[in-house]
Amino acid sequence: MRLKMEQGTRQRVAEFNWTHNDNAAALIAEYRRVADQAILVFDISVARENQPLNSPKLMEQLESLLKRGGLSDPHQLVSLLNEITTDEHLPLIARNHAKRLLKQIEK
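The structure assignment produced for this chain is given below.
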């Protein structure tokens, strides 16, 4: 993992693949969750526009990330999932899965 910090002309880079520092490990885990959530939202938006048949697979991926705590802030996805539940271009299985995921998030 690589962490980089810049301030003006100064920069510092730290690279490691294991650390005993709990704060660094937590920071890396949070950055990974943020990246996974952003990539998933992008993939879902692409699927809604161009590849609606991929949406059931993406809903399964979202559920997997949700179950293992792999999302930074699942509550940010509520509006997107609400839109998916009413999107007639997506298969019914994806819309129903989005409804179930909404119930899980809102608990």
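Interim note for the steering committee: The chain has a mean pLDDT of 92. The longest strand covers residues 2-7.
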